Amino acid sequence: MKLDTNNKKAVCVMSGGMDSTLSAYMMKKEGYEIVAVHFNYDQRTQTKELECFYKICDDLDVSNKYVLDLDFFKQLGASALTDKSIEVPTGGIEEGVPITYVPFRNGIFLSMAAAIAEKESAQVIAIGVVEEDSSGYPDCREFYIKSMQESINLGTKDETNIEIKMPLVHLQKSQIVTKALELEVPLKLTWSCYKNEQRACGVCDSCRLRLNGFKLAGEVDPVIYE
């Protein structure tokens, strides 16, 4: 895809997962130059996610990448994603906020992305939050992200005006699958599993949501499962 000539930039928070990947491809289609940001925070599948991030950036032809290492979340614990003494649930979608919620993760990620956006003179931060299919994570809600946008613009230079785009926030997982296929997003390069790095487990919340999305969309997930 050719970029517009007005040098629009979007800082894309990219985990290596399906949602954030689709969000980045949507920004590319809208003519933004992608500034890719990935966080290593000692999550269980850190190595796999980083590998996926680099492969997706290659496919998107992204040259401007930030990979940020955070040991804070491991020290904090309190989540099955960062504390290996807590088992990742495999019995189905949990009620309320699940144990895989990482405290205020998206708020911290967005704050760091805002610093990058201001430095890069980017107009947009893009994040692949999904409100309806988000497993009950409070930091995936639209009104919360909008409040972060207001705070970011209050706390940056007067000439800085950043919009946080969340193009998937009202979509269901099946609609995300369909949209990704329409845009020829290489879903085989994405990773959603909370537990494994070789073959996806197929039974954690994230795998269940992904597999159900493919099923409802009438498509086959190219990722290999146990």
Keywords, separated by commas or semicolons:
7 helices, Rossmann fold, 226 residues, single chain, five-stranded parallel beta sheet, alpha/beta, globular
Structure write-up:
The chain is of the alpha/beta class. It has one domain (9-217): Rossmann fold. It is built from seven helices and five strands. It has helices spanning 18-29, 46-60, 72-76, 105-120, 142-154, 173-182, 205-217, and strands at 9-13, 33-40, 64-69, 124-126, 163-165. α5 (142-154) links the parallel β4 (124-126) and β5 (163-165). α1 (18-29) packs across α6 and α6 crosses α7.
Spatial arrangement of strands, main beta sheet: 3-2-1-4-5
Oligomer: single chain
What's the SSE pattern? EHEHEHHEHEHH
Major sheet description: 5 strands, parallel
The shape is globular
Number of strands: 5
Give the number of helices. Answer: 7
Strand content: 5-15%
Assign the CATH architecture.
Answer: 3-Layer(aba) Sandwich
Topology-level CATH name: Rossmann fold
CATH homologous superfamily placement? HUPs
**What does the average pLDDT come to?**
94
Helix content: 25-40%
Summed up, the domain count is 1
CATH class: Alpha Beta
Unreliable parts: 1-5
Taking the alpha carbons of the first and last residues, their distance comes to: 36 Å
Structural class: alpha/beta
Q: From the alpha-carbon coordinates, what is the Rg to the nearest angstrom? A: 17 Å
